[in-house]
Design brief:
It contains five helices and no strands. By secondary structure, it is an all-alpha fold. It has one domain. Helix 1 packs across helix 3, helix 1 runs antiparallel to helix 5 and helix 3 packs antiparallel against helix 4. The protein is elongated and about 55 Å long.
């Protein structure tokens, strides 16, 4: 029963996290060419999104737990490991590109001279993170389906 609950938590947390990632990805074409003032106004919609970090932590813990619980089932283990690696990859992209842009712009309340470069890094790093979250979800679904067949 604990295995099923852990899988559910991993799938549910990943699905919820994917919602935020997809919002960024789908907004990119509409935001990337906005004039400066409009872009900075649009960015204020993301105030408080840093609370999603708690969800990402739950997601990571649950995926690691699924991998540990699946250690004797390679058809479940490896997709779960891939899912976790994709999540870690998304976080690496965030901390390497997105977060520095947030710091440089004081969470998009200050306008530095290189704001367009920072905008591109912010938008495209979120797009890359979304792709990695999609891959994480897909891998976790493969793991769940493999578990059902076991």
């Amino acid at each position: 029963m604990a295995y099923r609950v852990t899988f559910f938590i991993a799938l549910f947390a990943t699905a919820l996290a994917l919602g935020g990632a997809m919002a960024h990805l789908l907004a990119l074409p509409n935001k990337i060419a906005l004039p400066r003032d409009e872009y900075f106004i649009a960015q204020q919609a993301y105030r408080g999104w840093n609370r999603l970090a708690y969800l990402l932590l739950i997601q990571l813990i649950a995926i690691v737990a699924v991998a540990i619980m699946s250690r004797h089932e390679p058809w479940v283990l490896w997709p779960a490991v891939i899912s976790g690696l994709c999540l870690l990859g998304a976080q690496a992209v965030f901390w390497a590109y997105t977060y520095p842009a947030n710091v440089a712009t004081e969470n998009w309340t200050a306008i530095p001279d290189n704001w367009e470069t920072l905008r591109a890094r912010w938008e495209y790093s979120h797009a890359a993170g979304a792709v990695l979250q999609i891959l994480s979800m897909g891998s976790l679904i493969v793991a769940a389906l493999a578990r059902m067949r076991a």
